[in-house]
Specification:
Blueprint: H1 2-22, H2 27-79
Length: 86
């Protein structure tokens, strides 16, 4: 996850630095705003990646649970017992 935070911060720094220099601000102000933007982009990218990974993990877990329930229902039908929904 560290690489995502670093890349997010670097992207924010470069974006804000370029926009400040394009708008004609001096180097000191552009660097200061770039540093603040790097921090903000790093925090937002950490939040986004963490929520993305947790949702992907939940999706895989739900898929595994559905597969296990389907196999259990098939096993009950093979034994001659009716499934829960029948």
């Amino acid at each position: 996850m560290t690489s995502y935070i670093i890349h997010g911060g670097l992207a924010g720094f470069l974006l804000v630095l370029a926009l400040n220099l394009f708008n004609g601000n001096d180097w000191g102000l552009a660097l200061m705003r770039g540093c603040f933007a790097a921090l903000a982009f790093a925090i937002v990218s950490r939040w986004f990646i963490r929520s993305l990974f947790s949702e992907l993990h939940l999706s895989v877990w739900e898929h595994q649970q559905a597969s296990a329930q389907a196999q259990a229902a098939l096993a009950k039908e093979d034994e001659g017992e009716p499934a829960e929904g029948d």
